[in-house]
Amino acid sequence: MISQRGLLAALAGVATHIFYFNRSEHHMKAAIYILLLFTVASLHITQGITSHSLPPQASLSSTLTLITPFFTGLYTSLILYRLFLHPLRTFPGPLCARLSDLWFSLQVSKILDAHQQLLALHSKHGDFVRIGSSELSIKNYRSVEVIYGPQSKCTKADWYDLTLPLVSIHTTRDRAVHDQRRRVWSGAFGEKNLRVYEERITGVQEQLVRVLEGKAKRQKAVEVTELFRMYSFDVIGDLAFGQSFDMLKSDEFSWVLGVVDEAMMPLGMMLPMWVYRLLTIVPMALNGWRRFIGFVYQRVDDRLNKKVKVPTSDILSTLLNPYGGRKPSDTELNILRGDAQLILIAGSDTTATTLSSILYELVKSPSHITLLRKEISPHVRPNGEIPHHSLQNLSHLNAVISETLRLHPPAGAGLKRKTPPEGLVIGSIHVPGNVTVSCPQYVIGRDEAIYVDAKSFIPARWTISSELVKEKEAYVPFSMGPYNCIGKSLALMNIRLTIAKLIMQYEIRLAEGEDALEFERGAKTYFTTCPGRLCLQFTRRE
Question: Membrane spanning segments where (predicted)?
């Protein structure tokens, strides 16, 4: 029979859940709570030994008779609340997902396929799926505008505390800080800067062509997924830091890609943020992330210490302009480093994914290569150059890019938002306040309620067959509203220039014996979705 002390401890656990843990956010305090538990337990054990002359084992047993009912009460209250009283209790979803956010982490942890898991969940449960204790995944087309649009009252969810103390324009949850940083960032993507970037992209393209030329002469297959990652890192190194990483030329920085993969892996496990924040203080737990951040620190510090000669304006120069040559404060330095980390990931992996995905779709539907060549050919200069201003309005090229982004969105699992206290209405459904919501673009892009023949690659749906897009507002590969992708213009320029260059210079097909199944089957979702291997054969066109 439970003692009076045990009963009081259990009631204290229930009260702790109802009046403390059930209010506000606690993911940044997990380590403090664990430390507090061990401190209180140690003090109670010590008191039993010193004040009551109890043997150590008896004092430990006495302490456990309080701790055990406390946590029994706390978790009983938590489980009953999540099952029967939670504002999301009426939304469909797996039973275990209602009880713990760790359920979804366990589903995706083996092969990091959150985009596929979400597709399966929505196929089974419909437009609204409860994938965590306080989280909804929503594929209803109306949700995109409501959650991400310019008038949305949603804020960024706790996921964005991922990199603290580093803060970037992407991860800051403070709207005022975001808007101030966006004004600074916008200077890097003006028309004048884009013209400079185009010349620099063309220079890296020449190295890419040299690599492909060597493979073509030896009739060797090219694994383009990894090649485009190296290419994109070289481009972003040049444009952002004024110094290409030269991954296409040498092995000096080739290790960085492996470190990035290791750093991103915990993100692919979709861990609850309190778990991730705990891991940041566990030695050896996030070594890949620490090595990657060390690499980022070095790039920023080299610029601040003027160890890198910058030939012309680059993105980091724009971000440094507000400091007027003075040394940034510690807070400002964390923002600079955070932005630099964002540039490397969002500026390289997303572009590499899109380039690989475009070629994947084109080799499966080679008639579109013919159409692209016909469209691009009049704009090729005698020296082989194709200026971007002549590409940016080509309808079929843009349609191919748009259709690829629909089927292979770089951020396929969705961007997490927190609903306002009063909640929001999507169609006829009221979504409660203070819960996490996201719209998985990978799932939305394959929804027959939004796209006719949704699984097929049909670029014409963006040009002459617009009736194949039932709900245009659902298509937001670069997000929308105040947090939309500020680097969209640069990304599209790089994609257009690179695809045009490759299809005009090479015949491209699947390598001998390849079926390309691994490209989608082996795709992994971290912050971005990275495709599996794709081996192609490049042959120089006459």
Answer: 30-50, 62-81
pLDDT of residue 45: 92
Positions in the chain short of pLDDT 70: 1-2, 307-312
In 62-218, at which residue ranges do the beta strands (DSSP E only) sit?
128-132, 135-138, 155-156
C-alpha 508/C-alpha 502 separation (Å) is: 8
Instruction: For residue 475, give both structure tokens.
Output: 């298509």
Give which of 397, 399, 369, 383 is closest to 504, Cα–Cα: 369
Q: What is the pLDDT of residue 250?
A: 82
Give Rg (Cα) of the chain. Answer: 26
Domains of the chain: 4-85 (no CATH), 175-540 (1.10.630.10)
Contact 67, 4 (CB under 8 A): no
Q: Quick one: pLDDT at residue 254? A: 78
Q: Which residue type sits at 450?
A: I
pLDDT score at 303: 85
Beta bridge partners of 451: 469
The dihedral formed by the CA atoms of 319, 325, 330 and 335, expressed in degrees to the nearest 10: 0
> CA angle at residue 499 from 496 to 501, to 5 degrees?
100
CA dihedral 27, 30, 31, 35 (to 10 degrees): 150
pLDDT for res 21: 96
- Cα–Cα distance, 272 to 270 (Å, whole number): 7
DSSP code for 83:
I
pTM metric for this prediction: 0.95
Give the whole-angstrom CA distance, residue 345 versus residue 353: 11
Q: Which two tokens stand for residue 146?
A: 């409501």
Cβ atoms of 338 and 345 within 8 Å: the answer is no
